[in-house]
């Protein structure tokens, strides 16, 4: 018995010591700058926006940056800039949110940076400014991450980056999280899910309905945490800054439309005028438009009508090649009565919906986590949708002919479509929607053969 006690006591001492170490380490991690991410507020070839968060006892923030070198001895060349810092009280405490927009940078140049203050600094990370030239590159596009981010949504982000470390940016089509006004289980899971990747690869995002506040199941204004967490351009319509905006990266323009914005009828018309202007004036090679809601409802229990006919008309008028959306928690790709745009609907997270097989769909998918690679060159776009395992699920090209006309071509020999109903299908949907599913699926597949 004495021998047993003698063995147990050192074990207990070690256990309590480890608990103390864990507590201390967690406390230190919380004090350090975190949720660090890159985005763009101004031109990607000459600027870089950086945002991060600290606890309330560290109200000031700074960024140190320098042209990157292979040598670690670059101290004498470091530049230091104070951040714009704002406090915010959330359900998990008081935080300071910090933002810096570095400007007058050199194009096509790698920089090292870190953020912090006093003795509490992040690790050094790198970014590279855009060239501003017409050259081949690729970016990543994600549908809704939204729920169960830590456990399952994270794997999509990480596998996408591991497979594409040279991606120039990550584009999120809204509903990055489930409750935009809460940190717990939302932003506190989303930013660690991307982790170091967000510190090295810029983010672009359009707001979804879940980034807005909800009152009695009605979407209201965007939550303060959107503007605190991100630094996006303020070149959109008045009152929609950093929600509706555009970014010009090399030879492409990405336009974000906040389709959840609570605005007046007059403001809506202003948005249409603004959209036509930024579509018409761009003289680069390609335009992408992203907004959260798919152009038409696709989840089996939603209205399948066109949601934004005025926007649709403008996209067709200016022959926008590709529209990147989410919201439906499934995969779909197709055209709606015109050769262009190609509408893509995708989902990165684990929450999935059952599909209704609308006539405009050319390829569909359910019960999968996906990410998309979009390869850009002067005369061609290549779109590849992959499962979280890296398997190609959908792919097509859009080629620009010498006369400026666009040609769409689906990549041959794509795998069979995954049309498995979602988990708890029978519980979540009305009996008639469940009963008619198999007949609708067969009809859809027969239509594609004709």
Automatic annotation (TrEMBL):
<dbReference type="InterPro" id="IPR003961">
    <property type="entry name" value="FN3_dom"/>
</dbReference>
<dbReference type="InterPro" id="IPR004843">
    <property type="entry name" value="Calcineurin-like_PHP"/>
</dbReference>
<dbReference type="Pfam" id="PF00149">
    <property type="entry name" value="Metallophos"/>
</dbReference>
<dbReference type="InterPro" id="IPR008963">
    <property type="entry name" value="Purple_acid_Pase-like_N"/>
</dbReference>
<feature type="domain" description="Calcineurin-like phosphoesterase">
    <location>
        <begin position="138"/>
        <end position="330"/>
    </location>
</feature>
<dbReference type="Pfam" id="PF16656">
    <property type="entry name" value="Pur_ac_phosph_N"/>
</dbReference>
<dbReference type="InterPro" id="IPR015914">
    <property type="entry name" value="PAPs_N"/>
</dbReference>
<protein>
    <submittedName>
        <fullName>Metallophosphoesterase family protein</fullName>
    </submittedName>
</protein>
<keyword id="KW-0732">Signal</keyword>
<feature type="domain" description="Purple acid phosphatase N-terminal">
    <location>
        <begin position="33"/>
        <end position="129"/>
    </location>
</feature>
<dbReference type="InterPro" id="IPR029052">
    <property type="entry name" value="Metallo-depent_PP-like"/>
</dbReference>
């Amino acid at each position: 018995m004495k021998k047993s006690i003698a063995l147990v006591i050192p074990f207990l001492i070690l256990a309590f010591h480890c608990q103390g170490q864990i507590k201390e380490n967690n406390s230190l991690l919380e004090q350090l700058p975190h949720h660090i991410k890159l985005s763009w507020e101004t031109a990607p070839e000459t600027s870089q926006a950086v945002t991060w968060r600290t606890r309330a006892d560290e109200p000031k923030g700074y960024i140190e940056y320098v042209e990157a070198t292979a040598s670690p001895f670059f101290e004498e060349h470091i530049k230091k800039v104070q951040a714009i810092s704002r406090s915010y009280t959330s359900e998990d405490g008081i935080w300071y949110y910090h933002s810096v927009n570095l400007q007058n940078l050199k194009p096509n140049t790698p920089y090292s940076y870190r953020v912090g203050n006093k003795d509490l600094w992040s690790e050094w990370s790198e970014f590279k400014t855009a060239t501003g030239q017409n050259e081949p590159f690729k970016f990543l596009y994600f549908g809704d991450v939204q729920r169960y981010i830590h456990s399952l949504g994270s794997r999509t982000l990480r596998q996408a980056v591991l497979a594409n470390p040279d991606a120039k940016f990550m584009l999120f089509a809204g509903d990055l999280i489930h409750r935009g006004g809460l940190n717990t289980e939302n932003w506190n899971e989303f930013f660690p899910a991307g982790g170091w990747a967000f510190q090295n690869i810029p983010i672009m995002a359009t707001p979804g309905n879940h980034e807005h506040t909800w009152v009695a199941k009605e979407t209201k204004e965007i939550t303060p945490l959107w503007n605190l967490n991100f630094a996006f351009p303020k070149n959109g319509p008045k009152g929609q800054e950093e929600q509706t905006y555009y970014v010009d990266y090399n030879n492409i323009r990405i336009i974000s439309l906040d389709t959840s914005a609570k605005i007046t009828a007059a403001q809506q018309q202003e948005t249409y005028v603004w959209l036509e202007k930024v579509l018409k004036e761009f003289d680069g090679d390609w335009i992408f438009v992203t907004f959260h809601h798919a152009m038409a409802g696709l989840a089996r229990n939603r209205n399948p009508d066109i949601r934004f006919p005025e926007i649709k008309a403008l996209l067709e008028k200016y022959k926008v090649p590709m529209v990147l959306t989410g919201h439906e928690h499934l995969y779909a790709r197709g055209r709606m009565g015109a050769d262009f745009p190609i509408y893509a609907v995708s989902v990165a997270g684990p929450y999935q919906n059952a599909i209704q097989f609308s006539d405009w769909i050319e390829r569909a998918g359910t019960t999968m986590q996906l990410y998309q690679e979009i390869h850009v060159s002067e005369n061609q776009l290549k779109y590849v949708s992959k499962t979280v395992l890296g398997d190609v699920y959908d792919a097509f090209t859009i080629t620009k002919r010498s006369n400026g006309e666009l040609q769409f071509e689906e990549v041959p020999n794509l795998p069979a479509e995954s049309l498995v109903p979602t988990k708890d299908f029978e519980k979540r949907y009305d009996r008639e929607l469940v009963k008619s599913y198999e007949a609708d699926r067969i009809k859809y597949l027969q239509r594609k053969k004709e």
